[in-house]
Amino acid sequence: MSETETTTLLNFYNMLLEAERAGVTVLNELNMQVEDQQLKPILKKFLRDEGVNCRILVSLIHDLNAKPSDKTGAFVDKIRALDNLDEKIQLLIRGQAWVARKVKEFRFNLPAGSAYWFLKAIKIQHEENVDTLRKYFDK
Fold first, then answer.
1. Contact 84, 78 (CB under 8 A)
2. pLDDT tens digits, residue range 32-82?
3. Residues 113, 110: Cα–Cα separation, whole Å
4. Residue 15 sits in a domain of what CATH number?
5. Which of 29, 51, 71, 73 is deepest in the core (most CB within 10 A)?
6. What SS3 class is residue 94?
7. Which residues, including other chains, have CB under 8 Å from residue 131's CB and lie 6 or more apart?
8. DSSP 65
9. Other CB atoms closer than 10 Å to residue 40's CB: what's the count?
10. How many domains does the chain have?
11. Containing domain of residue 19, as a range?
12. 14: closest CA among 72, 81, 75?
């Protein structure tokens, strides 16, 4: 892998890591706000998955002999700026879709092997999260 390809891959991994960290923060805060006993376990599962995704991304970055970003994505402030819980969940849906779309767009730049499959799993997980939340709101 060329230096340019490695840099591009690291930038992508760090962008996702920052987004997943934002997801952890947002989901943790939403879990404290939500009283709906059907929504709460859904958000707890998402929170656990986002934490696992952070660990996977940190490992992928370390595999490239690089240091992971210590930043958290701007998504946290966007969610906090909203007053209504329903609006926050709708933005969460868009955020989950954004991650899935970014992985899909970048898939041809991913190395073969474990990294490819880990990122594909993250994409699918986020697509399923979107479907789960949409079904919840369509009930």
1. no
2. 999 999 999 999 999 999 999 999 999 999 999 999 999 999 999 999 999
3. 9
4. 1.20.1260.10
5. 73
6. helix
7. none
8. T
9. 15
10. 1
11. 3-138
12. 72
